[in-house]
Amino acid sequence: MVMATKVALDGAHAVSEAMRQIDPDVVAAYPITPQTAVVQRFSQFVADGRVNTEFVAVESEHAAMSACVGAAAAGGRVMTATAANGLALMWEMLYIAASMRLPIVMPVVNRALSGPLNIHCDHSDSMGARDAGWIQLYSETAQEAYDNTIQAIRIAEHADLKLPVMVMQDGFITGHGVERVEVADDKDVREFIGKYAPEHSLLDIDNPKTFGAWDMYDYYFEHKRQQTDAFSKAMPIITAVGKEFGSRFGRNYGIFDAFEMDDAEMAIIVLSSTAGTCRTVVRDMRKQGVKIGMLKLRVFRPFPAAELARALSRVRAVAVLDRSISFGAHEGAGPIFMELCSALFAAGSDAKVVDYIFGLGGRDIFPQHIEQVVHDLKEIASSGKVKSQVSYLGLRE
Amino acid sequence: MAKENASWREANIGGIVLEAGSSAEYKTGSWRTERPVHDAQRCTHCLICWIHCPDSAIVVENGRWVAFDYDYCKGCGICAAVCPVKVEDHEHTHQEGKVIQMVMEGE
Lengths: 397, 107
Prior knowledge:
The structure holds 2 protein chains of 2 kinds. By secondary structure, chain A is α/β, with parallel strands linked by helices. Chain A has helices at 11-22, 37-47, 61-73, 84-89, 91-99, 124-128, 142-157, 186-193, 220-249, 274-287, 305-311, 335-346, 367-383; strands at residues 4-10, 26-29, 54-57, 78-79, 105-110, 135-138, 165-170, 178-184, 256-259, 266-271, 292-297, 299-301, 317-322, 352-358, 390-393.
Protein backbone atom coordinates (compact mmCIF):
# COMPACT_ATOMS: atom_id res chain seq x y z
CA MET A 1 0.00 0.00 0.00
CA VAL A 2 1.22 3.47 -0.83
CA MET A 3 2.01 6.05 1.82
CA ALA A 4 -0.56 8.77 2.29
CA THR A 5 -1.15 11.57 4.74
CA LYS A 6 -4.61 12.56 5.94
CA VAL A 7 -4.91 16.30 6.23
CA ALA A 8 -7.62 18.93 6.56
CA LEU A 9 -7.68 20.87 3.30
CA ASP A 10 -10.19 22.87 1.35
CA GLY A 11 -10.71 22.00 -2.30
CA ALA A 12 -8.50 24.79 -3.60
CA HIS A 13 -5.62 23.82 -1.35
CA ALA A 14 -6.07 20.14 -2.17
CA VAL A 15 -5.57 20.99 -5.86
CA SER A 16 -2.52 23.15 -5.13
CA GLU A 17 -1.05 20.16 -3.24
CA ALA A 18 -1.59 18.06 -6.37
CA MET A 19 0.11 20.77 -8.43
CA ARG A 20 3.07 20.83 -6.04
CA GLN A 21 3.46 17.08 -6.46
CA ILE A 22 3.07 17.27 -10.24
CA ASP A 23 5.74 20.01 -10.26
CA PRO A 24 4.89 21.32 -13.75
CA ASP A 25 7.58 22.96 -15.89
CA VAL A 26 5.51 26.12 -16.30
CA VAL A 27 2.50 27.60 -14.52
CA ALA A 28 1.21 30.87 -15.99
CA ALA A 29 -1.62 32.44 -14.05
CA TYR A 30 -3.31 35.71 -13.28
CA PRO A 31 -2.68 36.38 -9.59
CA ILE A 32 -5.77 38.31 -8.45
CA THR A 33 -9.59 38.10 -8.56
CA PRO A 34 -11.26 36.06 -10.00
CA GLN A 35 -8.30 33.78 -9.22
CA THR A 36 -8.69 31.30 -6.38
CA ALA A 37 -6.51 29.99 -3.57
CA VAL A 38 -5.25 27.29 -5.98
CA VAL A 39 -2.74 29.69 -7.48
CA GLN A 40 -2.18 31.65 -4.26
CA ARG A 41 -0.97 28.52 -2.49
CA PHE A 42 0.96 27.26 -5.50
CA SER A 43 2.86 30.54 -5.91
CA GLN A 44 3.91 30.16 -2.25
CA PHE A 45 5.36 26.75 -3.13
CA VAL A 46 7.31 28.45 -5.94
CA ALA A 47 8.54 31.23 -3.63
CA ASP A 48 9.59 28.66 -1.02
CA GLY A 49 11.53 26.64 -3.59
CA ARG A 50 9.36 23.55 -3.07
CA VAL A 51 8.80 23.14 -6.83
CA ASN A 52 11.00 23.67 -9.86
CA THR A 53 8.20 25.37 -11.79
CA GLU A 54 8.73 28.55 -13.79
CA PHE A 55 5.83 30.68 -12.52
CA VAL A 56 4.69 33.41 -14.92
CA ALA A 57 2.48 36.02 -13.22
CA VAL A 58 0.66 37.49 -16.19
CA GLU A 59 -1.52 40.56 -16.73
CA SER A 60 -4.76 38.75 -17.63
CA GLU A 61 -6.24 35.29 -18.09
CA HIS A 62 -6.01 35.74 -21.85
CA ALA A 63 -2.28 36.18 -21.35
CA ALA A 64 -2.19 33.26 -18.88
CA MET A 65 -3.57 30.82 -21.42
CA SER A 66 -1.42 32.38 -24.19
CA ALA A 67 1.71 31.80 -22.11
CA CYS A 68 0.54 28.23 -21.42
CA VAL A 69 0.10 27.64 -25.16
CA GLY A 70 3.64 28.86 -25.85
CA ALA A 71 5.17 26.87 -23.00
CA ALA A 72 3.30 23.70 -23.99
CA ALA A 73 4.33 24.08 -27.64
CA ALA A 74 7.90 24.42 -26.36
CA GLY A 75 7.46 20.94 -24.88
CA GLY A 76 6.78 21.73 -21.24
CA ARG A 77 4.31 20.14 -18.83
CA VAL A 78 2.08 23.13 -18.27
CA MET A 79 -0.72 24.03 -15.86
CA THR A 80 -2.78 27.04 -14.87
CA ALA A 81 -5.94 27.55 -12.83
CA THR A 82 -8.85 29.93 -13.02
CA ALA A 83 -12.52 30.53 -12.24
CA ALA A 84 -15.59 32.32 -13.53
CA ASN A 85 -14.87 35.46 -15.57
CA GLY A 86 -11.20 34.53 -15.62
CA LEU A 87 -12.13 31.46 -17.65
CA ALA A 88 -14.29 33.65 -19.86
CA LEU A 89 -11.33 35.92 -20.57
CA MET A 90 -9.35 32.86 -21.72
CA TRP A 91 -12.02 31.92 -24.25
CA GLU A 92 -10.09 32.59 -27.44
CA MET A 93 -6.99 30.82 -26.18
CA LEU A 94 -8.94 27.78 -24.88
CA TYR A 95 -9.76 26.92 -28.49
CA ILE A 96 -6.17 27.53 -29.60
CA ALA A 97 -4.72 25.30 -26.85
CA ALA A 98 -7.14 22.53 -27.83
CA SER A 99 -6.72 22.80 -31.59
CA MET A 100 -2.93 22.87 -31.30
CA ARG A 101 -3.36 19.66 -29.27
CA LEU A 102 -1.46 20.90 -26.23
CA PRO A 103 -2.05 18.78 -23.10
CA ILE A 104 -2.47 21.66 -20.65
CA VAL A 105 -4.20 20.81 -17.34
CA MET A 106 -6.32 23.50 -15.70
CA PRO A 107 -8.20 23.25 -12.40
CA VAL A 108 -11.35 25.38 -12.61
CA VAL A 109 -13.21 26.40 -9.46
CA ASN A 110 -16.77 26.69 -10.79
CA ARG A 111 -18.28 30.09 -10.19
CA ALA A 112 -21.02 32.16 -11.76
CA LEU A 113 -20.35 34.40 -14.71
CA SER A 114 -21.30 37.93 -13.75
CA GLY A 115 -23.45 40.03 -14.15
CA PRO A 116 -25.11 41.10 -12.18
CA LEU A 117 -21.90 40.82 -10.19
CA ASN A 118 -21.62 37.44 -8.47
CA ILE A 119 -18.67 35.28 -7.43
CA HIS A 120 -20.46 32.24 -6.00
CA CYS A 121 -20.89 28.73 -7.30
CA ASP A 122 -22.62 27.67 -10.45
CA HIS A 123 -21.45 25.93 -13.60
CA SER A 124 -21.99 28.66 -16.16
CA ASP A 125 -18.25 29.25 -16.57
CA SER A 126 -17.10 25.74 -17.56
CA MET A 127 -20.40 24.86 -19.28
CA GLY A 128 -19.92 27.83 -21.56
CA ALA A 129 -16.55 26.36 -22.52
CA ARG A 130 -17.97 22.92 -23.24
CA ASP A 131 -17.42 23.18 -27.01
CA ALA A 132 -13.86 24.51 -26.78
CA GLY A 133 -12.21 21.11 -27.20
CA TRP A 134 -11.18 20.44 -23.60
CA ILE A 135 -11.86 17.26 -21.67
CA GLN A 136 -13.97 18.17 -18.62
CA LEU A 137 -13.84 16.28 -15.32
CA TYR A 138 -16.12 17.32 -12.42
CA SER A 139 -15.32 16.63 -8.76
CA GLU A 140 -17.74 16.17 -5.88
CA THR A 141 -15.24 16.66 -3.06
CA ALA A 142 -11.80 18.11 -2.33
CA GLN A 143 -10.46 14.55 -2.47
CA GLU A 144 -11.90 14.04 -5.95
CA ALA A 145 -10.52 17.39 -7.11
CA TYR A 146 -7.07 16.32 -5.89
CA ASP A 147 -7.35 12.86 -7.48
CA ASN A 148 -8.78 14.19 -10.76
CA THR A 149 -5.98 16.76 -11.09
CA ILE A 150 -3.34 14.02 -10.88
CA GLN A 151 -5.21 11.77 -13.33
CA ALA A 152 -5.74 14.70 -15.71
CA ILE A 153 -1.99 14.83 -16.41
CA ARG A 154 -2.01 11.21 -17.62
CA ILE A 155 -5.17 11.70 -19.65
CA ALA A 156 -4.06 14.94 -21.33
CA GLU A 157 -0.62 13.65 -22.27
CA HIS A 158 -1.79 10.28 -23.60
CA ALA A 159 -0.31 9.84 -27.09
CA ASP A 160 -3.73 9.09 -28.61
CA LEU A 161 -5.34 12.19 -27.08
CA LYS A 162 -3.05 15.23 -26.69
CA LEU A 163 -6.03 17.14 -25.37
CA PRO A 164 -6.17 19.78 -22.66
CA VAL A 165 -8.16 18.88 -19.52
CA MET A 166 -10.21 21.06 -17.15
CA VAL A 167 -10.76 19.74 -13.62
CA MET A 168 -13.78 21.31 -11.95
CA GLN A 169 -14.84 21.66 -8.35
CA ASP A 170 -17.67 23.74 -6.92
CA GLY A 171 -16.66 27.26 -5.92
CA PHE A 172 -16.83 28.01 -2.18
CA ILE A 173 -18.78 24.80 -1.39
CA THR A 174 -15.79 22.60 -2.26
CA GLY A 175 -13.19 25.28 -3.00
CA HIS A 176 -13.41 26.86 0.46
CA GLY A 177 -14.92 23.97 2.43
CA VAL A 178 -12.37 22.18 4.61
CA GLU A 179 -12.51 18.39 4.32
CA ARG A 180 -10.40 15.40 5.21
CA VAL A 181 -8.15 14.75 2.23
CA GLU A 182 -5.74 11.90 1.73
CA VAL A 183 -2.61 13.34 0.15
CA ALA A 184 -0.49 10.65 -1.46
CA ASP A 185 3.26 10.44 -1.11
CA ASP A 186 5.12 12.78 -3.52
CA LYS A 187 7.13 9.88 -4.92
CA ASP A 188 4.02 7.82 -5.69
CA VAL A 189 2.35 10.72 -7.49
CA ARG A 190 5.49 11.36 -9.55
CA GLU A 191 5.74 7.69 -10.45
CA PHE A 192 2.08 7.64 -11.45
CA ILE A 193 2.29 10.68 -13.75
CA GLY A 194 5.73 9.76 -15.14
CA LYS A 195 7.97 12.04 -17.19
CA TYR A 196 6.45 14.03 -20.02
CA ALA A 197 8.07 13.31 -23.40
CA PRO A 198 6.29 15.45 -26.03
CA GLU A 199 6.39 14.06 -29.55
CA HIS A 200 7.03 17.53 -30.98
CA SER A 201 8.64 20.51 -29.31
CA LEU A 202 9.56 24.02 -30.42
CA LEU A 203 12.76 23.76 -28.41
CA ASP A 204 13.93 20.78 -30.48
CA ILE A 205 16.18 23.09 -32.50
CA ASP A 206 17.75 20.24 -34.47
CA ASN A 207 14.32 19.49 -35.94
CA PRO A 208 12.67 22.88 -36.39
CA LYS A 209 8.87 22.84 -36.59
CA THR A 210 6.03 25.32 -36.88
CA PHE A 211 3.11 25.32 -34.42
CA GLY A 212 -0.13 27.18 -35.06
CA ALA A 213 0.53 27.86 -38.73
CA TRP A 214 -1.90 29.29 -41.28
CA ASP A 215 -4.60 26.64 -41.75
CA MET A 216 -7.06 27.51 -44.48
CA TYR A 217 -10.15 25.89 -45.96
CA ASP A 218 -7.87 23.23 -47.46
CA TYR A 219 -6.82 21.72 -44.07
CA TYR A 220 -8.69 23.32 -41.14
CA PHE A 221 -11.65 20.94 -41.59
CA GLU A 222 -9.35 17.89 -41.39
CA HIS A 223 -7.77 19.19 -38.19
CA LYS A 224 -11.21 19.69 -36.61
CA ARG A 225 -12.12 16.12 -37.56
CA GLN A 226 -8.93 14.94 -35.81
CA GLN A 227 -10.04 16.68 -32.60
CA THR A 228 -13.36 14.84 -32.72
CA ASP A 229 -11.50 11.60 -33.35
CA ALA A 230 -9.33 12.18 -30.27
CA PHE A 231 -12.47 12.70 -28.16
CA SER A 232 -13.87 9.44 -29.48
CA LYS A 233 -10.79 7.68 -28.07
CA ALA A 234 -10.87 9.46 -24.71
CA MET A 235 -13.43 7.45 -22.76
CA PRO A 236 -11.51 4.14 -22.53
CA ILE A 237 -8.33 6.06 -21.70
CA ILE A 238 -10.05 8.03 -18.91
CA THR A 239 -11.47 4.75 -17.59
CA ALA A 240 -8.10 2.98 -17.72
CA VAL A 241 -6.32 5.84 -15.95
CA GLY A 242 -9.08 5.87 -13.30
CA LYS A 243 -8.65 2.14 -12.76
CA GLU A 244 -4.88 2.36 -12.52
CA PHE A 245 -5.23 5.25 -10.07
CA GLY A 246 -7.60 3.09 -8.02
CA SER A 247 -5.25 0.13 -7.86
CA ARG A 248 -2.39 2.38 -6.77
CA PHE A 249 -4.12 4.83 -4.44
CA GLY A 250 -7.23 2.89 -3.38
CA ARG A 251 -9.85 5.21 -4.90
CA ASN A 252 -11.39 4.03 -8.16
CA TYR A 253 -12.70 6.38 -10.83
CA GLY A 254 -15.01 5.72 -13.75
CA ILE A 255 -17.03 7.84 -16.15
CA PHE A 256 -19.84 8.34 -13.68
CA ASP A 257 -20.74 7.08 -10.26
CA ALA A 258 -23.93 4.98 -10.07
CA PHE A 259 -25.66 4.97 -6.69
CA GLU A 260 -28.65 2.66 -6.04
CA MET A 261 -29.12 2.23 -9.79
CA ASP A 262 -29.39 -1.59 -10.00
CA ASP A 263 -33.19 -1.78 -9.73
CA ALA A 264 -33.95 1.94 -10.05
CA GLU A 265 -37.10 2.99 -11.89
CA MET A 266 -36.24 6.66 -11.52
CA ALA A 267 -32.91 8.46 -11.57
CA ILE A 268 -31.32 11.82 -10.83
CA ILE A 269 -28.31 13.02 -12.86
CA VAL A 270 -26.09 15.53 -11.14
CA LEU A 271 -22.58 17.02 -11.15
CA SER A 272 -20.14 17.87 -8.38
CA SER A 273 -20.94 18.74 -4.74
CA THR A 274 -24.75 18.51 -5.08
CA ALA A 275 -24.27 14.76 -5.51
CA GLY A 276 -23.70 14.60 -1.75
CA THR A 277 -27.12 16.13 -1.02
CA CYS A 278 -28.75 13.85 -3.60
CA ARG A 279 -27.11 10.74 -2.17
CA THR A 280 -28.57 11.48 1.26
CA VAL A 281 -32.05 11.94 -0.16
CA VAL A 282 -31.79 8.82 -2.33
CA ARG A 283 -30.70 6.82 0.73
CA ASP A 284 -33.68 8.12 2.75
CA MET A 285 -36.11 7.47 -0.09
CA ARG A 286 -34.79 3.93 -0.52
CA LYS A 287 -35.69 3.28 3.15
CA GLN A 288 -39.26 4.26 2.23
CA GLY A 289 -39.19 1.79 -0.66
CA VAL A 290 -38.89 4.37 -3.46
CA LYS A 291 -36.94 2.89 -6.37
CA ILE A 292 -34.76 5.91 -7.01
CA GLY A 293 -31.09 5.99 -7.97
CA MET A 294 -28.47 8.61 -8.77
CA LEU A 295 -25.83 9.03 -11.46
CA LYS A 296 -23.07 11.45 -10.57
CA LEU A 297 -21.37 12.51 -13.78
CA ARG A 298 -17.60 12.79 -13.58
CA VAL A 299 -16.83 13.17 -17.29
CA PHE A 300 -18.92 15.74 -19.17
CA ARG A 301 -16.56 16.11 -22.15
CA PRO A 302 -16.49 13.73 -23.89
CA PHE A 303 -20.16 13.22 -23.07
CA PRO A 304 -20.77 9.56 -22.15
CA ALA A 305 -23.89 9.24 -24.31
CA ALA A 306 -23.85 5.48 -24.90
CA GLU A 307 -22.80 4.69 -21.34
CA LEU A 308 -25.57 6.84 -19.85
CA ALA A 309 -28.18 5.38 -22.20
CA ARG A 310 -27.16 1.90 -21.03
CA ALA A 311 -27.22 2.88 -17.36
CA LEU A 312 -30.69 4.38 -17.80
CA SER A 313 -32.12 1.66 -20.06
CA ARG A 314 -34.57 0.38 -17.41
CA VAL A 315 -35.45 3.77 -15.95
CA ARG A 316 -38.86 5.33 -16.66
CA ALA A 317 -38.29 8.87 -15.40
CA VAL A 318 -35.07 10.89 -15.20
CA ALA A 319 -34.43 14.25 -13.53
CA VAL A 320 -31.40 16.27 -14.58
CA LEU A 321 -30.02 18.87 -12.18
CA ASP A 322 -28.41 21.68 -14.17
CA ARG A 323 -26.44 24.41 -12.40
CA SER A 324 -26.37 26.58 -15.52
CA ILE A 325 -28.73 27.72 -18.26
CA SER A 326 -28.25 27.62 -21.99
CA PHE A 327 -30.18 30.82 -22.68
CA GLY A 328 -32.61 30.44 -25.53
CA ALA A 329 -32.32 26.65 -25.59
CA HIS A 330 -35.45 24.47 -25.56
CA GLU A 331 -37.56 25.77 -22.65
CA GLY A 332 -34.45 27.47 -21.26
CA ALA A 333 -32.92 24.11 -20.34
CA GLY A 334 -29.40 23.47 -19.12
CA PRO A 335 -26.62 21.74 -21.05
CA ILE A 336 -26.71 18.37 -19.25
CA PHE A 337 -30.42 18.01 -19.99
CA MET A 338 -29.93 18.68 -23.69
CA GLU A 339 -27.00 16.30 -23.98
CA LEU A 340 -28.85 13.58 -22.08
CA CYS A 341 -32.02 14.00 -24.14
CA SER A 342 -30.13 13.58 -27.40
CA ALA A 343 -28.26 10.57 -25.99
CA LEU A 344 -31.51 8.87 -24.92
CA PHE A 345 -33.30 9.77 -28.16
CA ALA A 346 -30.43 8.29 -30.21
CA ALA A 347 -30.61 5.12 -28.10
CA GLY A 348 -34.36 4.81 -28.72
CA SER A 349 -35.25 5.28 -25.07
CA ASP A 350 -38.80 6.23 -24.12
CA ALA A 351 -37.85 7.47 -20.64
CA LYS A 352 -39.34 10.81 -19.62
CA VAL A 353 -36.67 13.39 -18.88
CA VAL A 354 -37.14 16.62 -16.95
CA ASP A 355 -34.69 19.36 -16.07
CA TYR A 356 -34.25 21.33 -12.86
CA ILE A 357 -32.23 24.53 -12.91
CA PHE A 358 -30.77 25.16 -9.45
CA GLY A 359 -28.08 26.87 -7.44
CA LEU A 360 -27.34 29.78 -9.77
CA GLY A 361 -24.97 32.33 -8.28
CA GLY A 362 -24.48 30.17 -5.19
CA ARG A 363 -28.17 29.78 -4.26
CA ASP A 364 -28.29 26.98 -1.65
CA ILE A 365 -29.85 23.65 -2.45
CA PHE A 366 -31.41 21.66 0.39
CA PRO A 367 -32.55 18.02 0.76
CA GLN A 368 -36.21 19.15 0.58
CA HIS A 369 -35.53 20.44 -2.96
CA ILE A 370 -34.28 17.02 -4.01
CA GLU A 371 -37.26 15.42 -2.22
CA GLN A 372 -39.51 17.58 -4.40
CA VAL A 373 -37.67 16.25 -7.47
CA VAL A 374 -38.24 12.66 -6.33
CA HIS A 375 -41.92 13.44 -5.69
CA ASP A 376 -42.24 14.83 -9.26
CA LEU A 377 -40.42 11.79 -10.68
CA LYS A 378 -42.85 9.41 -8.93
CA GLU A 379 -45.77 11.21 -10.53
CA ILE A 380 -44.14 11.18 -13.97
CA ALA A 381 -43.22 7.49 -13.67
CA SER A 382 -46.78 6.50 -12.71
CA SER A 383 -48.70 8.80 -15.07
CA GLY A 384 -46.23 8.86 -17.95
CA LYS A 385 -46.98 12.60 -18.22
CA VAL A 386 -44.60 15.54 -17.85
CA LYS A 387 -46.18 18.72 -16.50
CA SER A 388 -43.12 20.91 -16.77
CA GLN A 389 -40.06 20.05 -18.85
CA VAL A 390 -37.84 22.61 -17.15
CA SER A 391 -38.39 23.70 -13.52
CA TYR A 392 -36.47 25.72 -10.94
CA LEU A 393 -35.35 24.65 -7.47
CA GLY A 394 -35.09 27.29 -4.74
CA LEU A 395 -36.29 30.13 -6.96
CA ARG A 396 -38.76 32.66 -5.47
CA GLU A 397 -41.79 32.34 -7.74
CA MET B 1 6.95 16.28 -46.11
CA ALA B 2 3.20 16.23 -45.49
CA LYS B 3 1.25 14.52 -48.22
CA GLU B 4 -0.59 16.82 -50.62
CA ASN B 5 -4.37 16.80 -49.97
CA ALA B 6 -3.91 14.51 -46.97
CA SER B 7 -7.09 13.03 -45.46
CA TRP B 8 -7.89 13.82 -41.84
CA ARG B 9 -6.26 10.53 -40.86
CA GLU B 10 -3.04 11.44 -42.69
CA ALA B 11 -2.75 15.14 -41.87
CA ASN B 12 -0.30 16.16 -39.13
CA ILE B 13 -2.03 16.30 -35.74
CA GLY B 14 -2.82 19.85 -34.70
CA GLY B 15 -1.54 21.26 -38.00
CA ILE B 16 2.08 21.12 -36.85
CA VAL B 17 4.44 21.74 -39.78
CA LEU B 18 7.33 19.31 -39.45
CA GLU B 19 9.66 20.81 -42.09
CA ALA B 20 11.54 24.06 -41.71
CA GLY B 21 11.25 26.73 -44.42
CA SER B 22 8.08 25.31 -45.93
CA SER B 23 6.55 28.79 -46.35
CA ALA B 24 8.61 28.96 -49.59
CA GLU B 25 6.10 26.47 -51.01
CA TYR B 26 3.25 28.86 -50.40
CA LYS B 27 3.08 31.12 -53.47
CA THR B 28 1.36 34.36 -52.55
CA GLY B 29 1.64 36.04 -55.97
CA SER B 30 -1.99 35.27 -56.78
CA TRP B 31 -3.09 37.73 -54.05
CA ARG B 32 -1.88 40.62 -56.27
CA THR B 33 -4.25 43.13 -57.82
CA GLU B 34 -1.50 45.61 -58.74
CA ARG B 35 1.96 44.74 -60.02
CA PRO B 36 5.22 46.71 -59.69
CA VAL B 37 7.08 47.49 -62.91
CA HIS B 38 10.71 48.60 -63.05
CA ASP B 39 12.70 50.92 -65.31
CA ALA B 40 16.03 49.09 -65.71
CA GLN B 41 17.60 51.95 -67.73
CA ARG B 42 17.34 54.50 -64.91
CA CYS B 43 17.61 52.27 -61.79
CA THR B 44 20.59 53.28 -59.61
CA HIS B 45 20.55 49.93 -57.74
CA CYS B 46 20.31 51.69 -54.39
CA LEU B 47 18.36 48.59 -53.20
CA ILE B 48 16.06 50.58 -50.92
CA CYS B 49 13.21 48.50 -52.43
CA TRP B 50 15.05 45.30 -51.46
CA ILE B 51 15.43 46.50 -47.87
CA HIS B 52 11.72 47.37 -47.56
CA CYS B 53 10.06 44.46 -49.40
CA PRO B 54 8.19 42.45 -46.71
CA ASP B 55 8.09 39.30 -48.86
CA SER B 56 11.74 39.13 -50.03
CA ALA B 57 10.39 39.45 -53.58
CA ILE B 58 13.18 41.70 -54.95
CA VAL B 59 15.79 39.50 -56.59
CA VAL B 60 19.32 40.91 -56.25
CA GLU B 61 22.53 39.50 -57.74
CA ASN B 62 26.02 40.95 -57.23
CA GLY B 63 24.59 44.02 -55.54
CA ARG B 64 22.30 44.84 -58.47
CA TRP B 65 18.50 44.78 -58.89
CA VAL B 66 17.65 41.82 -61.14
CA ALA B 67 13.91 41.13 -60.97
CA PHE B 68 10.66 41.07 -59.00
CA ASP B 69 9.77 37.57 -57.83
CA TYR B 70 6.16 37.54 -58.97
CA ASP B 71 5.60 34.12 -57.33
CA TYR B 72 5.64 35.88 -53.94
CA CYS B 73 5.08 39.60 -54.64
CA LYS B 74 1.65 40.50 -53.19
CA GLY B 75 1.58 43.86 -54.96
CA CYS B 76 1.61 45.88 -51.72
CA GLY B 77 3.34 48.82 -53.45
CA ILE B 78 5.92 49.49 -50.74
CA CYS B 79 8.78 49.25 -53.29
CA ALA B 80 7.11 51.88 -55.49
CA ALA B 81 6.49 54.10 -52.47
CA VAL B 82 10.08 54.01 -51.21
CA CYS B 83 11.81 54.19 -54.62
CA PRO B 84 13.77 57.52 -54.59
CA VAL B 85 14.71 57.80 -58.30
CA LYS B 86 12.52 60.00 -60.49
CA VAL B 87 11.85 59.35 -64.19
CA GLU B 88 10.08 61.50 -66.78
CA ASP B 89 9.10 58.72 -69.18
CA HIS B 90 8.95 55.25 -67.56
CA GLU B 91 10.18 52.39 -69.75
CA HIS B 92 6.89 50.44 -69.27
CA THR B 93 4.20 52.95 -68.31
CA HIS B 94 5.55 55.96 -70.26
CA GLN B 95 4.40 58.03 -67.27
CA GLU B 96 6.30 60.55 -65.19
CA GLY B 97 7.05 59.19 -61.71
CA LYS B 98 9.59 56.84 -60.21
CA VAL B 99 11.74 53.92 -61.40
CA ILE B 100 9.25 51.54 -59.74
CA GLN B 101 5.58 52.18 -60.55
CA MET B 102 2.43 50.15 -59.95
CA VAL B 103 0.17 49.00 -62.76
CA MET B 104 -3.06 47.01 -62.64
CA GLU B 105 -2.42 43.26 -62.84
CA GLY B 106 -3.10 42.06 -66.38
CA GLU B 107 -2.39 45.44 -68.01
